[in-house]
Amino acid sequence: MNSGLKAETSDNGKTRGRQRDFSDNAVGSRILSALSGRTRKWLAKETGISESSISDYVANGIAKADAAVSIASALNVSVDWLLTGSGQSSDLLSVEDADWVEVHEHDLRELTDESLGPVVSTTPFRKDWLYRTFGRSSGFWLAKLPADLPRLDLRQGDPVFLRDVEDGEAQDGATYIVRVSGHLTVARIDAMLSAQMKPIERNLEDRRLAPRDIGPEDGQAALVARILGRPLAPIR
Fold it and tell me: Which has more pLDDT, 198 or 137?
């Protein structure tokens, strides 16, 4: 129920146009708490996000990574606290002191042995947030997932943070974009995978791949990139 927006567009003449100072959404409540009496108009000016979008985030939560980063920076809170309530509300550097890094998004549909595909967009992210979330602040790129992995609630088309695969890498329990017989998919490395199972079961919810099935031979899988997480959450 979009109760926050209903209150702002009420037919009651006394409440029409008035913004509520509370939210039924947990993220919205934290936004209002961190505002500390400042207005949504102020937050819109600080972030460059429209005031109507700010009100929507207060009512329904934040779905966009860049919006979450911008709002957290303006309010001087961590993205983790803003989205989940965990951690400290002010454990990031002030926005004036923060360093930023440009992260490119590549189109994997045009992946080749020499290229990740063309850059389709570039998004700035705070280095301190990246390090806090993923344990590193550089070496990232973004792409949309080529397949589902329901066990981890990963869906085809989701944008994810990725890093290049290191020589000989095949970390047990890690999740990768892989290429098999010219096709891209998503799989989780399982060192205990039975020898009787196919390298990748595309129709199973839990796609797993044994290290022995990774290599240059026909029918083997090639690791394209390690999936670190979505823009709003790491992959555990």
Answer: 137
